[in-house]
Design goal:
Layout (H helix, E strand, L loop, with lengths): L1 H20 L8 H4 L8 H10 L2 H18 L5 H21 L4 H20 L1 H10 L9 H29 L8 E7 L13 E4 L6 E6 L2 E10 L4 E7 L2 E15 L2 E8 L6 E8 L3
Keywords: Membrane, Transmembrane, Transmembrane helix
Organism: Lentzea waywayandensis
Protein name: DoxX-like family protein
C-alpha cells in the first residue's frame, strides 16, 4: 500500500506538471473570456486566474514535476510527500469550493489521501524533527510568560480591530443605492463616450464609488447620498469633491426600482433615468 500511494502520487504530480507545460491545463476558452466575470463558473475562473501569468503557471508545473521525481527516491520521499501534500490539499480544497467537475476533484482528493498516507508512515520522523528535537529557549519565569501572552493577545486584537475598521469604516459606507442597476428608460450621453449609459454600479465595497458603464467603457465617479432628503450628488473623480459636480438631483427608491432626476454637467435640462436592480451583483 505504501509503495502504491508513493508512486501513484508521484505519477499524478508529474502528469499534472507536464499538463500545464503542454497547455492541457490552465487554458481558457475565448467564449469564457467574453463573459462578464459574474457569469463565469468557478472552474473557469480558477483556471484563468492561475493561467493568467505564464511564468506562474510554469513555476507551478516545475514544482509539481520536481516533487513527483523526488517522491521516487527514498531519501527525499518525506520531504516531497510533505510538499506534495500541501499542494494537492490546496488543489482539492479549490476543486470542492469552486465547483470543479467531479472527475478532477476525485483525482485530487485521492492523490491527497495517498500523500497523507505516505506522510503518516513517517510520523515518527516528523515528531522527532518538528517537536522532540526542538529545544525550547523559553526559560523565563511566569511573569515573563504572562507578558508575552499579553503582547500576543494585544497584537491579535489590534490586527482584528484594524482590519475590521478598514473594511467597515474606510472601505464601506453603505447607502440605500448600493448595488448594480440597469438603465431602463432615459438617456445620458456625455462627451467622449460612444454609447449612452447602460448601467450604474453604486459600489458597496468601495465607499462613495459609482461606476458608469457605457457599453465597453467604465468611468468611475464620486457620489454621496442624503437618505433623509433623498438627494444624490455625483462628482467627476472618486474621492475628489474639489472636481466639477457631474450630477445634482434627487432619487426615488421603491424595492428594486430606482428613479433619479436631476441635471448632468450643469445642463439646464433635467434628465430622468429609471433603473432596475440586478440581483446577485
Amino acid at each position: 500500500m505504501y509503495a502504491f500511494c508513493r508512486y501513484g502520487a508521484a505519477l499524478v504530480l508529474v502528469v499534472y506538471g507536464f499538463a500545464k507545460l503542454n497547455g492541457s491545463q490552465f487554458t481558457v476558452l475565448s467564449s469564457e473570456l467574453d463573459k462578464p466575470m459574474g457569469d463565469v463558473s468557478g472552474f473557469w475562473l480558477t483556471w484563468h486566474y492561475f493561467g493568467f501569468s505564464p511564468i506562474f503557471g510554469t513555476l507551478v508545473a516545475l514544482v509539481q514535476i520536481t516533487l513527483g521525481v523526488l517522491l521516487c527516491w527514498r531519501k527525499t520521499t518525506l520531504m516531497a510527500a510533505c510538499g506534495g501534500l500541501g499542494v494537492l490539499a490546496t488543489i482539492t480544497l479549490i476543486d470542492l469550493t469552486y465547483g470543479v467537475d467531479a472527475s478532477g476533484t476525485v483525482m485530487a482528493a485521492a492523490t491527497t489521501a495517498c500523500l497523507g498516507f505516505v506522510v503518516a508512515r513517517h510520523r515518527a520522523d516528523l515528531v522527532r524533527v518538528l517537536w522532540t528535537d526542538q529545544h525550547s529557549t523559553d526559560t523565563q519565569g511566569m511573569r515573563e510568560v504572562i507578558v508575552r501572552v499579553i503582547i500576543q493577545v494585544a497584537v491579535l486584537v489590534a490586527a482584528f480591530a484594524g482590519t475590521y475598521w478598514i473594511a467597515n469604516e474606510n472601505n464601506r459606507a453603505p447607502t440605500p443605492l448600493d448595488g448594480a442597476w440597469d438603465v431602463r428608460t432615459g438617456t445620458y450621453h456625455p462627451v467622449g463616450t460612444v454609447h449612452s449609459v447602460e448601467r450604474l454600479y453604486f459600489e458597496y465595497n468601495r465607499a462613495h464609488l459609482v461606476v458608469f458603464r457605457f457599453d465597453t467603457q467604465w468611468i468611475e465617479h464620486h457620489f454621496e447620498v442624503d437618505p433623509a432628503r433623498r438627494e444624490l450628488r455625483i462628482w467627476e473623480q472618486w474621492l475628489r469633491k474639489d472636481t466639477p459636480l457631474l450630477f445634482n438631483g434627487a432619487y426615488e427608491l421603491t424595492g428594486d426600482r430606482l428613479v433619479i432626476t436631476g441635471t448632468f454637467d450643469d445642463n439646464a435640462s433635467p434628465v430622468r433615468l429609471e433603473l432596475t436592480r440586478i440581483r446577485n451583483r
